[in-house]
Amino acid sequence: MQDKTKKQIRERLLGDEKARARVSLCAYELYERRGCGPGCELEDWLQAESEILPPLIEEELRREVVSQATSDEAPAKKPVTVAEKPVKKTARLFKGKRPADEKVRRAP
Question: Per residue in 37-58, is it b (16+ CB within 10 Å) or e — as a string?
Answer without folding.
Answer: eeeeeeebbeebbeebbeebbe
